[in-house]
Amino acid sequence: MRGRIVTGVLVLVLALCSATAAQAGDEFILTAPESEAFTLAERQGLTILQRIPGRDVFLVRGPEGVPPDVVMARLLADPEIDDEHDKIFIEPNTVVRLPEAGLAAPLYTSTTDAQRALANQRPVAYHGSRVWASYVRQRATGSIRLFDAHRAYGTGAGIVAVIDSGVDAAHPALVGGLLEGYDFTRDAPGASETADVDPSNPILNPTQVVILDNTSVVPLNFSTQALLDAAQAAALPPGSTPATFGHGTMVASLVRLVAPGAMILPLKAFDASGTGRLFNVVRAMYQAQASGARIVNLSLSSMAPSVALADAVHFLDEEKVFVVAAAGNEGDASPRYPAALPPVIAVASVTAADRRSVFTNTGAAVALAAPGEAIVAAFPGGQYALGWGTSFATPLVSGTLALMQQVKSGINLDEVRRALAVAVPLSDPGLGAGRLHVWFAVSEAAGVPVP
Predict the structure, then answer these.
(1) Which one-letter DSSP state was computed for residue 393?
(2) Residue at 212 is within a domain
(3) Quick one: pLDDT at residue 338?
(4) Residue 110: partners with Cβ closer than 8 Å, 6 or more residues away
(5) Are 195 and 321 members of one domain?
(6) Is the Cβ–Cβ distance between 379 and 241 less than 8 Å?
(7) In terms of residue numbers, what domain contains 339?
């Protein structure tokens, strides 16, 4: 049994439990064979709340009034556990966050980029949708040579699961590109991001205020800016939109931008504040595979390792499902999870000048970087916004994998990594193979000499 044989793991998890007890409450993730889970729970006074279908992973509640570290220590010391055959583990159902949640300072330094990047609001056709020209013809799509890849190889295939805060399914940029998702925060079909805010919020209902011709850049949070008309901006009180509202719509729209021929499966595991529970993230990962996704885009950056999260990543790897994750925005090289797990393709951020973003995490786990500053993306309410952060670099890579799927349906992880490594060299260290070059990467995947 892992907890009793590997003492270091037990110490680590008990320390984690103590540090996160206030956040985790009395809920835990129990990994145990079905044949033993229920009897073990009964012996330890645990209440089984949920099970991930087909997996030996359970959400349980501890005995009332018993500290989390005591609950875990008692279970791991259970004398009935067979050390030779059982795979039993328990960890807190911790609060986890999107990388752009809880920031201490803005990731951007001015609003100049937003005014320029969002200026072209002329509607243009894009693979069955009518979208802003500034979304399609933004600086990032040019630097990664996206449309050269489209012309040479097509617009992608397969299903990309986006585990995030949900989507605005009515947004023109996403219409026709979404499968019905699931809301793990409410345990209900669908993955509506707009359900997390008051429907009268001016962000969602710009027609409720007088539309004027003059516009201004409005920081919506520490990672996002929007171009709003004056009346709409005036009707939006400071702090009236949650910390990461729009995050999921933005991320999904960037996958759609790169691979409009693929379908997006939105799986909502985070609310508009950017927080969620670890069990819901793990559930969403297994659901992605069960729903036929071959690519999982996951914006989650945690300093704490998790057995349940690692097991889910390795299961997806065994099932030939690629996990692409944000490296995180703390600006250091410390390991973050799931980015630090070997099967994961971890993505860092660079500026428009191909220099390391000040905020991006770096290190040996990073596979490559992609543009992650002033990225134009769809925003709820039929609008568009500019995003900063590794979360907005990551979907550019996930979409690239969907393009690879079209040219080589059986592509494996080693082949994907080799293809992504055909990148633009960078002078800054800790950014993996370099900066994403979509045309070159897909050419490599197709077995065509790089132009």
Answers:
(1) H
(2) yes
(3) 97
(4) none
(5) yes
(6) no
(7) 112-446
Q: Is the bond preceding 266 in cis, omega lying within 30 degrees of 0?
A: no
Specify whether the CB–CB gap between 448 and 158 falls below 8 A.
Answer: no
Which residue is listed with tokens 């409410």?
186
- What tens digit of pLDDT does each residue of 22-45 get? 344 699 999 999 989 999 999 999
pLDDT score of 208 more than 60: no
Instruction: Please enumerate in sequence order all residues whose Cβ is within 8 A of that of 224, keeping only pairs 6 or more positions apart, or say none.
Output: 100, 246, 247, 250, 379, 385, 386, 387, 388
DSSP label at residue 156: -
Q: Are residues 381 and 429 in the same domain?
A: yes
Distance CA 181, CA 167 (A): 9
Pairing assessment for the beta strands 57-61 and 47-51 based on DSSP bridges:
antiparallel
Q: What are phi and psi of 183, to 5 degrees?
A: -105, 100
- CATH code for the domain of 50: 3.30.70.80
Strand extents, DSSP E, 143-214: 159-164, 182-183, 188-189
- Whether 296 and 322 have beta carbons less than 8 Å apart is answered as yes
The single residue listed with the structure tokens 């065994």 is 318
Note whether 139 and 39 are same-domain residues: no
Asked whether 56 and 34 are in contact (CB, 8 A), the reply is yes
Query: Whole-prediction pTM value?
Result: 0.92
User: Of all helices (H) and strands (E), which one includes residue 247?
Assistant: helix 247-258
Helix (H, G, I), strand (E, B) or coil at 350: strand
Would you say residue 289 lies in a domain? yes
The model's confidence at residue 209, banded by pLDDT at 50, 70 and 90, is very low
CA angle 343, 449, 140 (to 5 degrees): 65
DSSP secondary structure string, 249-286?
HHHHHHHHHH-TTSEEEEEE-B-TTSEEEHHHHHHHHH
Asked, for residue 100, whether it belongs to a domain, the answer is no
The whole-number pLDDT of residue 251 equals: 98
Amino acid 57 reads V
What phi and psi values does residue 132 have, to the nearest 5 degrees?
A: -70, 140
Nearest residue to 410 via CA among 320, 324, 322, 292: 320
* Same domain? 85 vs 118: no
* Structural domain contains residue 65: yes
Q: Which of residues 43, 64, 93 is at a domain's end?
A: 93
359 close to 388: Cβ distance less than 8 angstroms: yes
Question: Which CATH number is 269's domain given?
Answer: 3.40.50.200
> Residue 9 above 70 pLDDT?
no
